[in-house]
C-alpha cells in the first residue's frame, strides 16, 4: 500500500513536470517568431494550379536591414527546413541596395527606409529663421533626411485612435507612457508615429516634449525633396514667438539625437545576436550602422547653411545667392529691384549672353584652325577671317565696358550725399534742422556760423540720404583763389570760414544732388554768385556735376503772388542765359518757394526730390543691351520689354577685367599670331565669365557671401 502510493505520487509529479516543460517550449517558440508571412511563388499562374504557398520565418534576432536584397525580386529557390518540427520553410533573402517591394509589407519597408535615413551621411540641421526677439510668431526650419521623422516625434502624443485617418499606423499609448516620465523608444514605436503629411500644406497640432508635456500649439508644413528651398526634406514650425517656447522646441529637436541613439544601440544588439547565431556577413548599411559611435545626426545650422545646401543641390546659383544677400540687407527700393532681378535670373541672362557670344567666336576659330594647318586658307581669306574675329572681339569688349562703367551695387548701401548749398545767411542751417527734425546745426543771426560740414542720415520716403549742411559762400569768393587771398589780413573767424568754404566746394564735387538755397530778399546777387562759381567749378569736369534743386527761401517774408511769379521767371531766365548749357541740363525745371523756419512747401520739395533721384537712379541702372551676333542689332534682355534694373558686384568687375585683358591681346595681335593662339586667348577670356556665373566651384567666394547671412537662412 505504501509503495503503491509512493509510485503514484512520483508518477503524478513527473506528469506535472512534463506538462510544464512542454508549455515552456511552446512559449519560447512563439517568442522567437516576430511575424509569419505567406509568400507566393513568382512563377504561379492566376488560376492557382501551379502556385505553391511558402512561409517566411524571420527570427527576432535578425536585423531589419537584413531584409535588403541584391536583386529586384525575392529568391525562394534555396529553401531549408528548420530543425524544429514546425514544418516551416525559411526563404533566403538576397541583399541589395534597392528596397524590395514584393514580399515585404509596408511596415518592413518603413523599417528599411528609416534606418537608411538614420545612417545617412548628411546631417539634419535646424535653426530659428525668424528673429530672436519677442514676437507674435516664430519660425523654426529643419532640413535634412531626418526632418519628417523629427516632426513625427514632436507630434507623438497627437496620434491616437481617432486620428487613424491621418497616421499610417495607429498608436496606442500604454499606461506607462501616459505617466509624466520620459518615454522609452524603439524603431517600431517611431514607425508607428508615421503620418501621411501632404507636401506644401499647412497643419495645426500640439507639440510635445519627451515627457509627453505640451510645449505649444503650433502650425507646421512639410516640403518634400527636391521641391524645397534646400532641395532636401524641409519642415517649418510656426509657433508662438516667445523665446522661452522657441528654446523648448529647439531643445526637443536636439533631444531626438538621444532617441535615435537608443534605436541605434538596439539595432546593434540585434546584429550582434544574429552574427552569433548565424555567422552572417554584414551588408553595407548594417556595417555603417554598426560603426556608428558618437551619434549626432541633428544639430543647429551654421550661418547661411540652408542656402549653402540649396547651392549644393543646384536649387540656387552663385548670382542668385548674391541677389539674396542684397535683398536681405537692402535699404532702398532700387536695391530691392536689383536684388530681385538677380534672384529671378535676369542678371544671369546678361552674363550668359556675354559668355555665349564669346564662346560662339571660340567655336568659329577652332574650326578655322584645321584649315590653317592644312594650308587651305589663302592670305586673302585669312585677312577676311581676322577682320571678322576682330569685329566680334571689339563687340565683346564694348559689352564688358558697358558693365564696367556702371557703379557697384555695394555703393547703393551707402546713402548718397545731398549738399545744402548757398550764400551766407540764406537759411541753410534752419533748412537742415527742419529736415532732420532736430537742432543739429547752430542757427544764429550772425553770418557764417557754420564753418564745417555737418552730416546726418535722413530717410525720405523709405530712401536713405546723407544730408550735409555746409559753410555759406561769400559774394566775394567766386572762385577758390579769391577765397584764399589775403589770409593774413583776415580775422580768425574769416580764416575758419575760408577753410569751411573749401570743404563745401570739395563736397560739391562728391554729392549726388544739391539744394541751392537763395534768400528771396537778395535773390539776384546770390543767384549770380552761385552761377559764376558753378561755371568755374564744372567747366572742365562736367561728368561730376550733381543734380540741382533751386529753392527760394524765406518766402514767408514776401506774400505778394505777382511778386513771387516775377521772381520765379527772373530766376529761370538767369539760369538759362548765364549758366553753362551742360550744367543747366542738371538743374530741375521746378523752382520751389519755401520757408525753412515755418516749413512751408518743404514736404512738396522733398517729394519731388525723392521722385527725381529714384527715377534718375532707375534710368541709370535699368536696361542693359548686349549686342547679339548681328552686330548692328541690340536686343533687350527682358522678354516682356520691361526695364531690368542691373548693377554688377565688385567681384564681377574683377573677373570682367580679367576677361578684358585677354580680349585686348587678341584685338592688338590679331594679324601677328596663329588661330590656335587666338583660340587659347578667347578660351581664357571665357573662363572668368564662368567664375561670375558660378559654373566653376569656388568655395572661398561662397563662404564669404554666406558668412554675412543669419543662422536660419
Automatic annotation (TrEMBL):
<protein>
    <submittedName>
        <fullName>GTPase, putative</fullName>
    </submittedName>
</protein>
<feature type="domain" description="MnmE helical">
    <location>
        <begin position="318"/>
        <end position="710"/>
    </location>
</feature>
<dbReference type="GO" id="GO:0003924">
    <property type="term" value="F:GTPase activity"/>
</dbReference>
<dbReference type="InterPro" id="IPR027266">
    <property type="entry name" value="TrmE/GcvT-like"/>
</dbReference>
<dbReference type="GO" id="GO:0005737">
    <property type="term" value="C:cytoplasm"/>
</dbReference>
<dbReference type="Pfam" id="PF12631">
    <property type="entry name" value="MnmE_helical"/>
</dbReference>
<dbReference type="InterPro" id="IPR027368">
    <property type="entry name" value="MnmE_dom2"/>
</dbReference>
<dbReference type="InterPro" id="IPR025867">
    <property type="entry name" value="MnmE_helical"/>
</dbReference>
<dbReference type="GO" id="GO:0002098">
    <property type="term" value="P:tRNA wobble uridine modification"/>
</dbReference>
<keyword id="KW-0342">GTP-binding</keyword>
<feature type="domain" description="GTP-binding protein TrmE N-terminal">
    <location>
        <begin position="124"/>
        <end position="315"/>
    </location>
</feature>
<dbReference type="GO" id="GO:0005525">
    <property type="term" value="F:GTP binding"/>
</dbReference>
<dbReference type="InterPro" id="IPR006073">
    <property type="entry name" value="GTP-bd"/>
</dbReference>
<dbReference type="InterPro" id="IPR004520">
    <property type="entry name" value="GTPase_MnmE"/>
</dbReference>
<dbReference type="Pfam" id="PF10396">
    <property type="entry name" value="TrmE_N"/>
</dbReference>
<dbReference type="GO" id="GO:0030488">
    <property type="term" value="P:tRNA methylation"/>
</dbReference>
<keyword id="KW-0547">Nucleotide-binding</keyword>
<feature type="domain" description="G">
    <location>
        <begin position="418"/>
        <end position="534"/>
    </location>
</feature>
<dbReference type="InterPro" id="IPR027417">
    <property type="entry name" value="P-loop_NTPase"/>
</dbReference>
<dbReference type="Pfam" id="PF01926">
    <property type="entry name" value="MMR_HSR1"/>
</dbReference>
<dbReference type="InterPro" id="IPR018948">
    <property type="entry name" value="GTP-bd_TrmE_N"/>
</dbReference>
Amino acid at each position: 500500500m505504501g509503495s503503491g502510493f509512493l509510485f503514484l505520487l512520483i508518477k503524478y509529479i513527473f506528469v506535472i513536470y512534463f506538462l510544464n516543460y512542454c508549455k515552456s517550449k511552446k512559449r519560447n517558440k512563439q517568442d522567437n517568431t516576430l511575424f509569419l508571412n505567406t509568400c507566393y511563388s513568382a512563377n504561379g499562374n492566376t488560376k492557382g494550379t501551379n502556385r505553391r504557398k511558402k512561409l517566411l520565418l524571420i527570427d527576432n534576432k535578425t536585423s531589419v536591414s537584413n531584409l535588403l536584397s541584391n536583386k529586384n525580386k525575392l529568391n525562394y529557390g534555396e529553401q531549408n527546413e528548420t530543425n524544429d518540427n514546425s514544418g516551416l520553410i525559411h526563404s533566403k533573402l538576397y541583399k541589395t541596395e534597392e528596397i524590395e517591394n514584393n514580399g515585404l509589407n509596408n511596415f518592413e519597408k518603413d523599417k528599411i527606409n528609416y534606418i537608411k535615413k538614420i545612417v545617412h551621411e548628411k546631417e539634419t540641421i535646424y535653426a530659428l529663421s525668424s528673429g530672436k526677439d519677442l514676437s507674435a510668431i516664430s519660425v523654426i526650419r529643419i532640413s535634412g533626411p531626418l526632418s519628417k521623422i523629427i516632426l513625427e516625434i514632436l507630434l507623438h502624443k497627437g496620434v491616437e485612435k481617432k486620428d487613424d485617418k491621418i497616421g499610417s499606423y495607429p498608436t496606442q499609448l500604454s499606461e506607462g507612457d501616459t505617466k509624466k516620465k520620459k518615454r522609452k523608444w524603439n524603431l517600431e514605436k517611431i514607425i508607428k508615429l508615421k503620418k501621411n503629411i501632404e507636401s506644401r500644406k499647412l497643419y495645426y497640432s500640439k507639440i510635445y516634449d519627451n515627457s509627453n508635456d505640451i510645449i505649444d500649439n503650433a502650425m507646421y508644413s512639410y516640403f518634400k525633396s527636391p521641391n524645397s528651398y534646400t532641395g532636401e526634406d524641409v519642415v517649418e514650425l510656426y509657433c508662438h514667438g516667445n523665446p522661452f517656447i522657441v528654446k523648448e522646441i529647439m531643445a526637443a529637436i536636439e533631444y531626438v539625437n538621444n532617441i535615435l541613439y537608443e534605436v541605434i544601440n538596439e539595432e546593434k544588439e540585434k546584429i550582434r545576436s544574429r552574427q552569433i547565431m548565424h555567422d552572417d556577413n554584414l551588408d553595407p548599411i548594417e556595417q555603417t550602422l554598426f560603426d556608428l559611435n558618437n551619434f549626432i545626426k541633428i544639430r543647429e545650422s551654421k550661418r547661411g547653411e540652408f542656402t549653402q545646401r540649396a547651392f549644393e543641390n543646384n536649387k540656387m546659383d552663385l548670382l542668385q545667392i548674391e541677389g539674396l544677400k542684397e535683398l536681405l540687407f537692402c535699404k532702398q527700393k532700387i536695391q530691392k529691384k536689383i536684388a530681385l532681378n538677380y534672384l529671378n535670373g535676369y542678371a544671369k541672362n546678361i552674363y550668359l549672353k556675354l559668355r555665349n557670344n564669346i564662346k560662339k567666336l571660340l567655336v568659329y576659330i577652332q574650326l578655322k584652325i584645321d584649315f590653317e594647318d592644312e594650308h587651305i586658307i589663302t592670305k586673302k581669306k585669312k585677312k577676311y577671317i581676322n577682320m571678322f574675329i576682330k569685329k566680334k572681339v571689339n563687340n565683346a569688349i564694348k559689352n564688358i565696358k558697358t558693365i564696367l562703367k556702371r557703379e557697384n551695387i555695394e555703393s547703393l548701401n551707402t546713402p548718397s550725399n545731398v549738399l545744402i548749398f548757398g550764400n551766407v545767411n540764406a537759411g541753410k542751417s534752419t533748412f537742415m534742422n527742419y529736415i532732420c527734425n532736430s537742432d543739429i546745426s547752430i542757427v544764429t543771426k550772425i553770418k557764417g556760423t557754420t564753418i564745417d560740414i555737418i552730416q546726418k542720415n535722413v530717410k525720405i520716403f523709405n530712401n536713405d540720404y546723407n544730408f550735409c549742411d555746409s559753410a555759406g559762400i561769400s559774394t566775394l569768393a567766386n572762385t577758390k583763389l579769391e577765397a584764399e587771398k589775403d589770409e593774413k589780413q583776415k580775422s580768425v573767424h574769416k580764416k575758419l570760414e575760408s577753410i569751411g568754404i573749401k570743404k563745401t566746394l570739395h563736397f560739391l564735387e562728391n554729392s549726388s544732388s544739391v539744394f541751392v538755397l537763395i534768400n528771396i530778399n537778395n535773390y539776384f546777387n546770390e543767384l549770380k554768385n552761385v552761377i559764376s562759381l558753378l561755371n568755374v567749378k564744372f567747366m572742365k569736369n562736367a561728368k561730376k556735376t550733381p543734380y540741382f534743386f533751386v529753392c527760394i527761401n524765406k518766402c514767408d517774408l514776401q506774400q505778394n503772388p505777382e511778386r513771387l511769379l516775377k521772381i520765379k521767371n527772373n530766376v529761370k531766365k538767369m539760369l538759362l542765359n548765364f549758366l553753362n548749357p551742360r550744367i543747366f541740363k542738371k538743374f530741375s525745371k521746378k523752382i520751389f518757394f519755401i520757408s525753412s523756419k515755418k516749413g512751408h512747401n518743404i514736404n512738396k520739395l522733398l517729394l519731388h526730390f525723392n521722385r527725381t533721384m529714384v527715377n534718375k537712379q532707375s534710368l541709370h541702372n535699368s536696361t542693359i543691351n548686349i549686342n547679339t551676333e548681328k552686330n548692328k542689332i541690340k536686343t533687350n534682355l527682358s522678354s516682356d520689354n520691361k526695364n531690368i534694373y542691373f548693377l554688377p558686384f565688385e567681384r564681377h568687375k574683377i573677373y570682367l577685367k580679367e576677361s578684358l585683358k585677354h580680349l585686348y591681346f587678341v584685338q592688338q595681335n590679331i594679324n601677328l599670331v596663329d588661330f590656335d593662339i587666338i583660340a587659347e586667348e578667347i578660351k581664357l577670356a571665357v573662363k572668368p565669365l564662368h567664375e561670375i556665373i558660378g559654373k566653376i566651384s569656388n568655395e572661398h567666394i561662397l563662404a564669404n557671401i554666406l558668412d554675412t547671412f543669419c543662422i536660419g537662412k
